[in-house]
Specification:
Elements (H helix, E strand, L loop, with lengths): L1 E3 L2 E3 L7 H14 L9 H10 L2 H22 L5 H12 L1 H11 L5 H11 L12 H19 L3 H11 L1 H11 L1
Antiparallel strand pairs: 1-2
Helix pairs in contact: 1-3, 3-4, 3-7, 5-7, 5-8, 6-7
Length: 176
């Protein structure tokens, strides 16, 4: 038997594997609250204890917010146009290309967060991406989740603007 917080998991054979992953992510996200008032050194250690899948899960939403904010500020207004435009940012192929642009400027800690996410073992890869692209995209998401937990909103905006400069310029040029 394994105790996790107030939950007792025994026996695990009754749960499908995707449930266990979802449970693990949810458990990590719920426990993020306990990290809110830690000092910087303690925060680094605490973030290191969060599951990599949870960091990527959180980072996916951080990137999604950046994309939506960028598109709305650029004047894209209809839901249909917003959704089709967002695909240019959130597809694994686009995120893999974006990673290549920012890798040279990442700090050692940021690079470690990226590599940690990139090295997650994947069982399901979308048909539109290669395994390598999907791993790189997951690394980017983990990086953005890591930065979000550290409270590095300015760094997130900086890296997002550099990583997705081509997509942003594409929309800017359409406007002019």
């Amino acid at each position: 038997m394994l105790f996790l917080g107030d939950f007792l998991l025994s026996p695990l054979k009754f749960f499908p594997s995707n449930f266990l992953l979802t449970f693990t992510i949810a458990y990590d996200i719920i426990n993020i609250e306990k990290y809110a008032n830690l000092e910087v050194e303690s925060m680094e250690k605490a973030i290191g204890e969060i599951g990599t899948a949870a960091l990527a899960y959180l980072g996916d939403s951080v990137i999604e917010i950046c994309v939506r904010e960028t598109l709305v500020k650029m004047g894209v207004s209809s839901a249909k146009n917003l959704n089709s435009a967002a695909l240019r940012f959130v597809r694994a192929e686009a995120q893999a290309e974006a990673v290549m642009k920012i890798l040279p400027i990442l700090s050692d800690e940021e690079n470690a967060a990226y590599r940690r996410g990139r090295n997650i073992g994947h069982t399901n890869v979308p048909k539109s991406a290669t395994v390598g692209q999907y791993r790189m995209a997951t690394g980017l998401e983990a990086l953005f989740g890591y930065l979000h937990l550290k409270g590095e909103g300015g760094r997130i905006k900086e890296l997002f603007a550099l990583a997705f400069a081509d997509q942003i310029n594409e929309f800017t040029n359409k406007e002019n």
